[in-house]
């Protein structure tokens, strides 16, 4: 049975290679590196969630850099169509996995520990299943490969509301954020998420004009078809340490998902941070850091 499964996995991995994105369809992700000493341990690579950015992770990345044992470099990236990374007309998990492959190959990273939140977590899962030799261990933050995303109803409405609101031309960034939050809350009731999105993504460009960091139109077009549901990766499995961290107030990772998750990630562990919602690392940063460090430092 084990031999048959291994052969089937090899066939599927060959199939995935044949449909891989062409190199000219990948993008070079913008990134920050937290590294002040030499080390030989695999670095930590962090990807934010949908409508997030690598800037959300700066404080935690700096702390991870200081407190991992043995010390590790920590790298946070902006996904395509987010932050300072290039925009693209396509946004899918297979493409995001190829962006990660291009990134680690260019930097000469042979193996790394991956941390991903929400959309970034699913991209990291896809990469780990397709390219397990490049991955040491996996930390997935408040997202599951099972079923449709709970954001299925929230995100399209939020993006449509954002697209419908004209950005003011003469307002300061503080005034614009205040007014946009007020207008978005008329159609989106999740105040914490609206604040997170606006504070993370509204910026002024080099010409002093307000703009969003993410590609509103492409994400709106891609969400339901390409992001809300994780691709079927069976029979591939990632048979190395994996940690699924979820918020106690969130419904993104349910106990009913665990059995299906274990089929893809047989060594998966599950931790719940009480009092945290979907943006676990922002709402409960100390508790989240402690859980991550325990996992990273335990599996040496």
TrEMBL record:
Q: Which residues are the signal sequence here?
A: none
Q: Does the keyword Cell wall biogenesis/degradation apply?
A: no
Q: Can you give the residue ranges of the AB hydrolase-1 domain?
A: 43-285
The reaction(s) catalysed by this protein are: 1-octadecanoyl-2-(5Z,8Z,11Z,14Z-eicosatetraenoyl)-sn-glycerol + H2O = 2-(5Z,8Z,11Z,14Z-eicosatetraenoyl)-glycerol + octadecanoate + H(+); 1-octadecanoyl-2-(4Z,7Z,10Z,13Z,16Z,19Z-docosahexaenoyl)-sn-glycerol + H2O = 2-(4Z,7Z,10Z,13Z,16Z,19Z-docosahexaenoyl)-glycerol + octadecanoate + H(+); 1-octadecanoyl-2-(9Z-octadecenoyl)-sn-glycerol + H2O = 2-(9Z-octadecenoyl)-glycerol + octadecanoate + H(+); a 1,2-diacyl-sn-glycerol + H2O = a 2-acylglycerol + a fatty acid + H(+)
What protein is this chain from? sn-1-specific diacylglycerol lipase ABHD11
Organism annotation? Photinus pyralis
What is its EC class? Answer: hydrolase
Its EC number(s) = 3.1.1.116
According to its UniProt record, which protein family does this protein belong to?
Belongs to the AB hydrolase superfamily.
Report keywords, A-Z: Hydrolase
Q: Does the keyword Repeat apply?
A: no
Which InterPro entries does the protein's record reference?
AB_hydrolase_1 (IPR000073), AB_hydrolase_fold (IPR029058)
MF terms (GO), sorted A to Z: carboxylic ester hydrolase activity
Q: Name one GO cellular component term.
A: mitochondrion
């Amino acid at each position: 049975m084990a031999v048959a499964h291994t052969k089937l996995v090899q066939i599927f991995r060959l199939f995935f290679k044949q449909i891989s994105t062409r190199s000219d369809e990948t993008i070079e992700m913008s990134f920050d590196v937290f590294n002040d000493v030499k080390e030989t341990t695999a670095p930590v690579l962090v990807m934010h969630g949908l409508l997030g950015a690598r800037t959300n992770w700066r404080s935690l990345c700096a702390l991870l850099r200081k407190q991992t044992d043995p010390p590790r470099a920590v790298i946070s990236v902006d996904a395509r169509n987010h932050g300072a990374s290039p925009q693209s007309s396509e946004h899918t998990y297979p493409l995001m996995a190829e962006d990660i492959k291009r990134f680690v190959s260019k930097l000469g990273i042979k193996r790394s520990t991956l941390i991903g939140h929400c959309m970034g977590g699913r991209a990291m899962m896809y990469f780990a299943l397709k390219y397990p030799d490049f991955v040491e261990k996996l930390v997935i933050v408040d997202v599951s490969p099972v079923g449709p995303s709970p954001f299925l109803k929230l995100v399209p409405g939020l993006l449509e509301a954002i697209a419908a609101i004209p950005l003011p031309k003469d307002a300061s960034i503080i005034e614009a954020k205040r007014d946009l939050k007020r207008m978005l809350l008329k159609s989106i009731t999740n105040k914490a998420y609206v604040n997170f999105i606006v504070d993370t993504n509204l910026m002024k460009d080099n010409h002093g004009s307000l703009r969003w960091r993410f590609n509103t139109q492409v994400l709106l077009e891609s969400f339901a078809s390409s992001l809300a549901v994780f691709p079927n990766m069976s029979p591939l499995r990632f048979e190395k340490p994996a940690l699924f961290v979820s918020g106690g107030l969130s419904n993104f990772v349910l106990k009913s998902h665990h059995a299906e998750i274990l089929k893809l990630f047989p060594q998966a562990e599950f931790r719940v941070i009480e009092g945290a919602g979907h943006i676990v690392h922002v709402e409960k940063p100390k508790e989240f850091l402690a859980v991550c460090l325990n996992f990273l430092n335990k599996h040496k």
